[in-house]
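pasting for ref
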Amino acid sequence: MTVQTKTSDTTPFAEVKASILNRLIVRPEIGALLGALVVFLFFSIITDKFLSALGVSTWLDDASTLGIMAVAVAMLMIGGEFDLSAGVMTASTALITGLLAVNAGWNVWLALAVSLVFALAVGALNGWVVMRTGLPSFIVTLGTFLALQGLNLGVTRWVTGTVQVSGIRSADGYQSAGWVFASTTNIGDARIQASVVWWIVLTAIAALVLVRTRFGNWIFAVGGSLPSARAVGVPAVRTKIILFMTTAFAGWVVGACNLLRFAGVQANQGVGLEFQYIIAAVVGGCLLTGGFGSVVGAAIGALIFGMARQGIVFARWDSDWFMLFLGVLLLSAVLVNNAFKKRAERVRR
């Protein structure tokens, strides 16, 4: 009798614990959250500067532009595609804005509008070519990357005689545009950049779209199985084109933030960063095969980047160690994500 009572008392508690554990396991971002906690605690212990107001604002600033792009890239990867032109797009849009505002004398807001239209058009073209031809997005966007890089260098040198555009602070509309994309908010001793606000807002919007809307369901569907998604009526072509346009929009935001903050842009800016965006998304729980992932996890992945990069600086280590960190982080994330996905599939059954 005593044994029966004890068993009946402990069984519900065990079931509750199992239920909570199962809910955590099916969340793609749980691995990134644990990783961020480890990195945070590690650098908090080894360097006093890490938790100072200046330190916190510095690694948040470092993570913000990477995070904006990582969130958009994560949505695209969940949809089963890649965009290798995402990094160079940040430079292309900034150069268009700068050339129109500085060299052509346009208002900054009008120049920003034109660069946004350009970005969305390139994103739509990428998506249309991928869906029309059936070519891997890796190849299509690699071609776009090379074309944009050549245009950035060739047009900038042709117009300015150099490979950079500067002097936008004197253009009409700079003050208001600068407030939106490059202002600084003081919170105590911390200086929070506008890019951090953009990062938080866009992450929240993307998370809501992904888990609360029909379009979010379409993203998971086309990434999980394109033929199955089409069979149940998902507008696959439209969904993937919008996803490519989303990464292009994120590139425009980052380009505007960098241009208006630093008052200039180099023609080769952003080259190579596309791999960091993908790594941040993978660290955040996205699979390279699509159909699984989290934009919140991608934002946390970018935060890990910022904390690690600035933590290494605060600790006065050689910055070359950061590349070792990236390699280990990527491999670990892929292994962890695969393990979590298999466990999540078992839980859902």
